[in-house]
Amino acid sequence: MKNFLHQNFLHQITHNFLKQHDDRIGLTLEAIKDGFLDYLFFNRGTYPDQATDQDIYQALAMTIRDRLVQRWLHTYKKATMEKDTRVVIYLSAEYLMGPQLGHNIVNLGVREVVEKAMNDLGIDLQSVLDAEVEPGLANGGLGNVAASYLDGLSSLEVPAIGYGIRYEFGLFRQSFSNGWQIEETDKWLQFGFPWEIQQFDRAVEIKFGGSTQRVKDESGNEKVNWIPSEEIKGIPYDVFVPGYKVNTVNTLRLWKAEAIDSFNFQSFNVGDYYGAVDKKVSSENITKVLYPNDESIEGKILRLKQQYFFVSCALQDCVNFFLESGGNILDFHEKFVVQLNDTHPTIAIPELMRILVDEQGVAWDEAWHITQKTFGYTQHTLLPEALEKWPVGLLGQILPRHMEIIYDINYKFLNLAREHFPNHQEIIRTLSLIDETGEKYVRMANLACAGSFSINGVANLQTELLKSYTLKDFYSIFPEKFNNKTNGIAPRRWLMLINNRLTQLLDDTIGTGWEKDLDQLKSLEPFAENQDFVNKWKAVKKEIKNDLAQRIFEQQRVKVDPNSMFDILVKRIHEYKRQHLKVLHIISLYRKIKDNPNESYVPRTFIFGGKAAPGYRMAKLIIKLINSVAEVINNDSSINDLIKVVFIPNYNVRNSQWIYPAADLSEQISTAGKEASGTGNMKFSVNGALTVGTYDGANIEIREEVGSDNFFLFGLKADEVKSLKESGYNPYTYYQENESLRKAIDMINHGYFSPNERDLFRPLTDHLLYYDEYMVMADFTDYVRAQEEAEQLWSQSDAWAKASILNTARMGKFSSDRTVREYLRDIWKADAVEINIKDTLH
């Protein structure tokens, strides 16, 4: 009775508190201004006229955060914690969240109100947004998908929790020195992160190393105890993920590693100051850096510990929450569906088995049934080298119990496989979770396929290649598991937030509603024939390009012409993404202008962006080549500024929001069959860029949607690449037969772009001439042809604008909301739960 009265008393106080503070957390102009000024004075300790940019940003961020907290608590209480709701759990090593302030303002639906509030106080909202430091939680497309799907789940009002790592430092900040990439520490947390709440009471313990011991329990059944050599804590930090104009605010729970005993007083007392904090340092290293360099054995150990750390934290958290709410562990898969975002979280499969069998006493077969009904697996790559493998010895050293479980899973799985493939020992070897062709490795993709009820690719072509090539033997056993879920992007961030001018034009022309139903953009199509609208479209595009040109000049002192074609290639630097194919085209065009100065040319600005992995030497050489070519071309007065080359350093979400809206031509030129999907291609197209691309990934589906006349296709198809390689591909013959290509490579080899070090780029050109596994030489001629087609259309200003309009109008399919709906329908089987914030915490 006392507890009942106590709970009612607390509920009444909570009710009264929220009622009294409705104005404080309201969305009116005055409420937001008052909240901002309160935080500026009481939290930042300053007056408006003395506030720094960081003071202003933090005060506005906390003002917006207050509005999210109420909705977040309601979502957790009324949706996530309810016994009858199914919760989507997303496990990902990356979350490309991007700057949060602008995104949260947009999703709350208060952009105009906040902008007016700031204007009334003499503050430019864009300058406040520019003061935010981007979260260092991701590198590229994998993290973009994770962030977009969390946004989509919240916008569709579906209960969800994303789990990941709270990296203290991001991948790295990129700068250039003499054209070479320099990696600097990404100190994204240096000013704090106002969008998180630390949850000490939800901490869990994580084990590493040691040995296992088989004992008998009280009933005489055999039980396995894991006796670790190291134990640490995982501390959760909850980040708010609001849906668009709904009250649902889901959770991204990020985990930080800490020592259980972070300070040894005895060591400190005898002068061993380093020893006193040794456990603290070694523990916290696990969550220090996104993707630590794994060329060394120490780096490999750290990466494996990272992966296990966050999935163990996540699964322990889910089990604890489920049992605390009165759930039966045998129904775990009914409450949670867990999506593995690529192979990084795959160790979650043996971890759930360990928890169920060793800690919860579930029989093996029942535990395996629960596990297989819990996990869905998204396979993002087709590259064999990207299918993650861990040495058996290393995995057994760090996770001895998991290695035992993997062997047990493999034994039972191969028995099943032999029923499908009797007398096919080679197929059995391919299917095995253990690669025994040399040093023994655990194949994480195989483990994910065996332990999941669903296996999906991320574009139609990629899924078909998974079924026919990469995972063909698994498809033979489990065809019912395989399905496609073409990637999508969040229209709130990648159109509304980053392209306010175009958003306003869309709203004025076709009304609102497309923000949550991107198919409504189709109603824009008839306006492509309306000259008045075409003129407005061109004017908006020109303003956006002026903005980017101004930023380029301010940051790099390179003057680019906004009237020129902005031809943009921004993505991770990798040979298969073929930035060097673009460079060869630029050099050939430059050579052509030099040789024939009196001909007519389309003015073009070539813009690059992207980071090379610290240990990827060839990618770094490609960056150096781009910067060296830019240095020569941008300072050659003889070409009359007809072409300019710019490499924007430290490409990230914050920089990309100026790039995507300004693009005229989007470069999606990866070797066919190598790009799983791509999401940059979608971001460009929805903002009105035309694409020059290969028949690869989601390019295929984009071309089908926008129309072949509005897409510049080139290059070998995936089957043609395979056929040419099998017949004996000789890249040197293309060098001999194509004069333009030969001149471009000769200019590089003769030191035209490296006069002080003639052979600097020889490793790159030799690789192209004699190996060229990514078919740069074979595709060059057709690539130039596609570029010439683009120039012909560009010369017809209205025709280009019409194609641009149709690209935006026909991109409805590529909303992450559509992808999430398909996941919900086919895999997750979770329903929306409407959140009413008037229903306080009773």
TrEMBL record:
GO cellular component labels: cytoplasm
One Pfam family, short name: Phosphorylase
GO molecular function: glycogen phosphorylase activity; pyridoxal phosphate binding
Residues that bear N6-(pyridoxal phosphate)lysine: K683
Residue ranges that the Swiss-Prot or TrEMBL entry lists as coiled coil: none
Reactions catalysed according to its record: [(1->4)-alpha-D-glucosyl](n) + phosphate = [(1->4)-alpha-D-glucosyl](n-1) + alpha-D-glucose 1-phosphate
Listed cofactors: pyridoxal 5'-phosphate
UniProt entry keywords in alphabetical sequence: Carbohydrate metabolism, Glycogen metabolism, Glycosyltransferase, Pyridoxal phosphate, Transferase
EC code(s) of this entry: 2.4.1.1
Gene3D superfamilies linked: Glycogen Phosphorylase B
Top enzyme category: transferase
One GO BP: glycogen catabolic process
Function: Allosteric enzyme that catalyzes the rate-limiting step in glycogen catabolism, the phosphorolytic cleavage of glycogen to produce glucose-1-phosphate, and plays a central role in maintaining cellular and organismal glucose homeostasis.
Family, similarity comment: Belongs to the glycogen phosphorylase family.
Protein name: Alpha-1,4 glucan phosphorylase
Organism of provenance: Aureibacter tunicatorum
